[in-house]
Amino acid sequence: MDSALVIGGTRFIGRHLVDDLLEHGYGVTIFTRGNRENPFADDDRVDHVEGDRTNDTALESAAMTVDPDAVFDCVAYQPKDVRAATRLFADCEAYVYVSSGAAYGREEIPKREGETPLESCTAEQATDDRFETYGNRKAEGDRAVVAAAEDGVRAMTVRPPIVYGPHDYTERLDWWIDRVNRFDRVVVPGDGTNLRHRVYVEDVASALRVVAEHGEAGEAYNVGDRRLVTLEEMVDLIADSLDTSVEIVHAGPRELAAGDLALDDYPMYRTYPHVLSTAKLAALGWESTPLAEAMDRTVADHLENDRGGVEEEPDRAAEERVLDILDTL
Q1: Who contacts 76 (Cβ-Cβ below 8 Å, separation ≥6)?
Q2: What is the DSSP secondary-structure string of 216-236?
Q3: Is the overall model pTM greater than 0.90, yes or no?
Q4: Which of 141, 147, 166, 311 has the fewest CB atoms found within 10 Å of its own CB?
């Protein structure tokens, strides 16, 4: 495969995917609405076709204009988007859909492709755009990929958990980096052993390419850091990258209530462990970036871009009330 069309490509996962594809010799075209700054505007290796991917006519025009070997669908948020793309790009050598670990419908440790059942999706949920139905819609998109493969399309799915790294617009990890960078004491909800799978964005990008090159039609592939760390260990990794040290203070539900806070107010907290098996992807030859290296790059980007993190998450004043309570115990 020599040419690739990235649906999306200017914001986060797609942006890193374009970089990865260029590094591996692909000719790349991005298909976006043009609403965001194009980081590749001055790169003559990257073409840009403007259009709305939810408009089938615009997508069909892109298919005829570009005629790519591989298509990477980074911004398919409703099942109909996947069905349209797999139909319009049916003759391509590979179509890879960015799904999500949220597509899994049962709590298992770990969640495995083809074994752990997916979320159901009603007709109403399929056309929704609320956060609450995100997993349902991604799961239905996965089923659309399987249906396309049964019709002879080489379509595949990649399922990441929470993605972090440079250019992360969600700023979930930035919130924690900001805490460690500015304060000597960092509140960690619960006992610090909370385990929620994360994945470095450059590893998602390489996974998409590896699946396009070596994956099997109709199959899904989980992607995630090959070494998992708890929430407390993640804070320690951040501190190491910042060359600092912090005191970690554990706070349970009763202590957090002093600041009108709850455990799940904290970014990346999840009561039940969320772990994806990545063995199937690794068997294709994919490798993940060492955690310390991934965190170093993420922290450097945070400092360079002065991101403070998710604004609506626990503010420091509320945490100070919690710390005051804990200091009296």
Answers
A1: 7, 53, 82, 85, 97, 98, 141
A2: -TT-EEE---SS---HHHHHH
A3: yes
A4: 311
